[in-house]
Write a structure and sequence with these properties.
There is one protein chain. It contains 8 helices and 2 strands. By secondary structure, it is mainly α. A two-stranded antiparallel ribbon has the order 1-2. The protein is elongated, with a radius of gyration of 27 Å.
Length: 150
């Protein structure tokens, strides 16, 4: 079963009956027969599996890294009764400029350092024009609020 699983990982399907694939019993003089199949090394398979990235796990790691920044940002916004969503996207287009977010945080003295902006940028993932979805910022602040309550 393990051999069949490994072959499927390589994209090669073996017949259901593995004994037919091996060609039956071997003679003592013939040595091992491969019938055109190549070996699959476990270390090679493991290294390939380690290279696989799951986007959800990467996003979760970024959220964990940015959580302290988001909590500080949320607490300062709540103390001053401010909403970055209303400031940066008053017409509710759904897109915000990261540069405008940074400028607003500095203008309202929300206490974020340059390193904090790098973490925010990684979590919000702005596009090539430095725009990100307002929903991402809303979710980030919402998660920070849930964590603060817990």
């Amino acid at each position: 079963e393990m051999e069949r699983l490994c072959e499927q990982l390589r994209g090669v399907n073996l017949p259901r009956d593995a004994s037919r694939a091996r060609g039956g019993p071997r003679g003592a003089q013939q040595g091992p027969q491969r019938h055109g199949r190549s070996e699959l090394r476990i270390d090679h398979l493991l290294s390939r599996l380690q290279d696989i990235r799951v986007p959800e796990e990467d996003e979760a790691a970024k959220r964990l890294e940015v959580r302290p920044v988001a909590e500080v940002l949320l607490s300062k916004l709540q103390r001053r009764n401010l909403s970055l969503l209303k400031i940066l996207d008053p017409d509710m287009h759904g897109k915000m400029s990261f540069a405008a977010l940074k400028a607003a945080c500095q203008r309202y003295d929300l206490g974020l350092q340059e390193e904090d902006f790098h973490r925010l940028s990684a979590a919000l993932a702005p596009d090539s024009r430095q725009l990100f979805g307002a929903e991402k910022l809303r979710r980030l602040l919402q998660l920070a609020g849930q964590e603060a309550k817990a």
